[in-house]
């Protein structure tokens, strides 16, 4: 499939004249900024497991943690570096000697050192003036380089810093020997155009590779990262599932797929592993994924609407801009209130039923009606539900052959009444009315029917199974009846257990009595 940059007129026109790179480096910070998600705390074992998976996924850099923060954090980073992975292993450090020393002690490939540069952070947080910050930044970079370690330097809150001062900071760290610079949008206040502009401005004055780190406070982290790439950034900081401080960071899976499928820019990511890694992160961090999460969410490739399902069944691209297999997902056709006949026919084929062969047009229409009825009650319909409905409908004796018909049933139950059922049946057109009591409403209803039919047909077995979960689940009743030398087993499904039971018994009686 061609990237949209080569295939979509609007995108082609809008990107005209822009020089885009062939490859972008993915700097994964799931284990550092991702772990800063409030409430998330990973054990060293969990961090190692995640690092191994990130390495297999193909990220270029794993920011394994902030080693000064705790003994466990330092131990985890040391264990990760000892595994000699392909990915570059990085640790975070303030521009403070003790932070850097602990990071050095972890044997990392890279130290990501940072100091805030914005007026707000200078005045209220660091209580340092511009010159002090320049000096601290240079000292830290030189100290790390003296130890022969790669340095990535971040000007924290870069996007709220005066542009001229920000460029000055990056220039002095370049002179001090930094290997690359990172531009953090620490509180996510950028828009894509502004990010593109800022990166272009920095690039005019600094020749180091440029990285970006975008937060998602306005939901723009991915868009801003892409804006930065349009401006000339060569590396993007991401976290799996977009976890991180507050509203999180740029989601790795979204950045990677946008780069690949829209811009035609490669990363080292093995995209087919994305869903598996996303689920691992969700499991270990305890942060549940929203179902509509792009790329890796449960619904990212699910279709319920009749028009959409018909479209994708005819040609996947109509409603699937990304082939699901590329990210380790698969298409799901969900049945419910919005379902159309094409989707139901497709589901029936999967379950072994073909309209016009083993299911009639009439029965097919009844299946659609029953599925929509369940959908109207707000329920999701599973394959088991469909199977039960189809069996219920296809195995029913045809109208003309039916001898016994249920005209009415009413049940009464409660804590201060004896469960009672009143039933009106017609047998060969003649009307019969009776009431019976039982241990519960189902028992009373079946006893009422039996009292009309007589002893010649006996209920031998009764089983009930709730197919879907919940109090409004579809109940499947299976009964065995014996009489007139015949034995029949019948299934019936209904959201109401009394109706499912009565329908099964009446159907069984008809099968036994059928001429
Ligand atoms: C934008 C980001 O995501 S940055 C990373 C944020 N991550 C974390 O903070 C997680 C791990 N942090 C921790 O475990 C602790 O905060 C530590 C160990 C780093 C520091 O703990 P403490 O010394 O108790 O300080 P505390 O966290 O309360 O305050 C931060 C201190 O760092 C200072 N600081 C922040 N950045 C820098 C810097 N680049 N250079 C020097 N000092 C800095 C603050 O001004 C403050 O200093 P103060 O104690 O002199 O007022
Ligand atoms: C350390 C820096 C890059 C950071 O996490 C931020 O600014 O959000």
UniProtKB/TrEMBL annotation:
<keyword id="KW-0028">Amino-acid biosynthesis</keyword>
<protein>
    <recommendedName>
        <fullName>2-isopropylmalate synthase</fullName>
        <ecNumber>2.3.3.13</ecNumber>
    </recommendedName>
</protein>
<keyword id="KW-0012">Acyltransferase</keyword>
<dbReference type="InterPro" id="IPR050073">
    <property type="entry name" value="2-IPM_HCS-like"/>
</dbReference>
<keyword id="KW-0808">Transferase</keyword>
<dbReference type="InterPro" id="IPR013785">
    <property type="entry name" value="Aldolase_TIM"/>
</dbReference>
<dbReference type="GO" id="GO:0019298">
    <property type="term" value="P:coenzyme B biosynthetic process"/>
</dbReference>
<comment type="similarity">
    <text>Belongs to the alpha-IPM synthase/homocitrate synthase family.</text>
</comment>
<dbReference type="InterPro" id="IPR054691">
    <property type="entry name" value="LeuA/HCS_post-cat"/>
</dbReference>
<dbReference type="Pfam" id="PF22617">
    <property type="entry name" value="HCS_D2"/>
</dbReference>
<feature type="domain" description="Pyruvate carboxyltransferase">
    <location>
        <begin position="24"/>
        <end position="275"/>
    </location>
</feature>
<dbReference type="GO" id="GO:0009098">
    <property type="term" value="P:L-leucine biosynthetic process"/>
</dbReference>
<dbReference type="InterPro" id="IPR000891">
    <property type="entry name" value="PYR_CT"/>
</dbReference>
<keyword id="KW-0100">Branched-chain amino acid biosynthesis</keyword>
<comment type="function">
    <text>Catalyzes the condensation of the acetyl group of acetyl-CoA with 3-methyl-2-oxobutanoate (2-oxoisovalerate) to form 3-carboxy-3-hydroxy-4-methylpentanoate (2-isopropylmalate).</text>
</comment>
<dbReference type="InterPro" id="IPR036230">
    <property type="entry name" value="LeuA_allosteric_dom_sf"/>
</dbReference>
<dbReference type="InterPro" id="IPR002034">
    <property type="entry name" value="AIPM/Hcit_synth_CS"/>
</dbReference>
<dbReference type="Pfam" id="PF08502">
    <property type="entry name" value="LeuA_dimer"/>
</dbReference>
<comment type="subunit">
    <text>Homodimer.</text>
</comment>
<dbReference type="InterPro" id="IPR013709">
    <property type="entry name" value="2-isopropylmalate_synth_dimer"/>
</dbReference>
<dbReference type="Pfam" id="PF00682">
    <property type="entry name" value="HMGL-like"/>
</dbReference>
<comment type="pathway">
    <text>Amino-acid biosynthesis; L-leucine biosynthesis; L-leucine from 3-methyl-2-oxobutanoate: step 1/4.</text>
</comment>
<keyword id="KW-0432">Leucine biosynthesis</keyword>
<dbReference type="InterPro" id="IPR011830">
    <property type="entry name" value="LEU1_arch"/>
</dbReference>
<dbReference type="GO" id="GO:0003852">
    <property type="term" value="F:2-isopropylmalate synthase activity"/>
</dbReference>
